[in-house]
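Narrative of activities, Objective 1.

The group set out to show that a structural description can be obtained from nothing but a protein's sequence at a throughput compatible with the screening campaign. Below is one input-output pair from the validation batch, recorded exactly as produced.
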Amino acid sequence: MGYIMDLRKMVGSRPLIMAGACVIVKNDAGHILLQKRTDTKDWGTIGGALELGESLEEAAARELLEEAGLTAEKFTFVTVLSGKEMYFKYPHGDEVYNVLAVYEATGVTGEPTIQDDEGLELAYFPLDKPIANLNPFSELLLRKTGYIQT
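Output recorded for this entry:
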């Protein structure tokens, strides 16, 4: 996240508009892959901010590889989420208003493996049962996209 880190040096923790991609990965049973986050210690979706010159699909592919060690043959666009509901305040104080493109990955290869310092653990969760300790932002995202019901 070099671009955002560079901006943070100039603006501190003030709110930024951050464009990014979220990747939904399902296994053969239809369970969704989540990562236990190092910053909030709860379960969240795979994804992150764009780097300069990167497309949304490239960001989705990069984040999937960086956060889970996986590659995908295809990323199917689901929706774009934005607005006041996409506000997130990180535990260390940085604030963002996300503009988030959500993709579903298909033809996924590899074994889910922690690749960076953003995740503590990776696991698949069924969507028809409540997910304990689900990150509130990820829960909102999954509800808005219809992956979990209200």
